[in-house]
Specification:
- By secondary structure, the protein is α/β, with parallel strands linked by helices.
- The protein is built from 15 helices and nine strands.
- The strands form three sheets. The protein has a five-stranded parallel sheet with strand order 2-3-6-1-7, with helices on one face. A two-stranded antiparallel sheet has the order 4-5. The protein has a two-stranded antiparallel sheet with strand order 8-9.
- α7 packs across α8 and α8 runs parallel beside α10.
- The radius of gyration is 24 Å and the shape is globular.
- The two termini are about 40 Å apart.
- It comes from Streptacidiphilus cavernicola.
- One of its GO terms (molecular function) is hydrolase activity.
Length: about 375
Amino acid sequence: MNPYDEPSAPGAGPGLSPVSAGADGEDRAVEAALRPRDLDEFIGQERVREQLSLVLQAARHRAATPDHVLLSGPPGLGKTTLAMIIAAELNAPIRITSGPAIQHAGDLAAILSSLTEGEVLFLDEIHRMSRPAEEMLYMAMEDFRVDVIVGKGPGATAIPLELPPFTLVGATTRAGLLPPPLRDRFGFTGHMEFYAPAELERVIHRSARLLDVQIDADAAAEIAGRSRGTPRIANRLLRRVRDYAQVRHDGLVNQEIAAAALAVYEVDARGLDRLDRAVLHALLKLFGGGPVGLSTLAVAVGEESETVEEVAEPFLVREGLLARTPRGRIATAAAWAHLGITPPQAPPHAALPTQQELFRTGSEGGSEE
């Protein structure tokens, strides 16, 4: 979502924190009202918007179906919203499904055979589609045809099924997992980038108008600075600040109220939540800044290794607070400063791997001790 992709509430689903980029049922319900309807309303992603606008305008001029579109990037940046805007700009219906829902080639064949001419098929998490369905998609995208296998064994026959021209919009958070034959069949690929604070402020002001929240510029800047560059998180935090302002104040949101509300929800000035700070605190206080293996660090904070690796680590690394080395996770100088903890008296390079160790491992990771 952008104003967009799925704002949501903390506690709305198990394990969903205020700064999680994931979305739940409540998110999707609110999202429909906040999503922009066309490219002009869409905030941010200037390069992708310009390129996509050219693709769609050219297709309309030719009265043809536009090329298939692949949108990649972290969750919460507006991939689903852009898919819906593509359908709206083409004045075409949209069919929405996801990779995990397509586990057999027959599942995909049923969807493709029911498409109408010019329809947009949005396939979220396309990298999680099953291999048989993926191979069927190659021919459907290129030749608008699929072969339906009837029967088994030597008596099986392939019946060609012609498909009407359609536009596939695929979305993925892990473009590297897409096989080259599938990636190459997309005529346009757009990579979504994290938002600048100024862009998030525009998102927050727009969402505040739609939610009938009175907010000043300083409060919007406060929320934007803690939103991890993600509109979905900005919208979620706006809703939590709105709740706080309505319950404990008169409903008006200023910088002081926004900061107090976000303190209640344990989102600090850099956007770190409880789990992020727990990981850093364990790394600094229990392990002297590292290096320490992922599984040991996860045990120290009482979480699964996958949760630490996929939820907390990406943001901490992007913020320069944590580094992954062949010997394990280490804290940076910025992490000590952020938590206000004095580092131990040791040379700064003591925890870093030697050149020989880097050469032996050949790659970064250090998941285990």
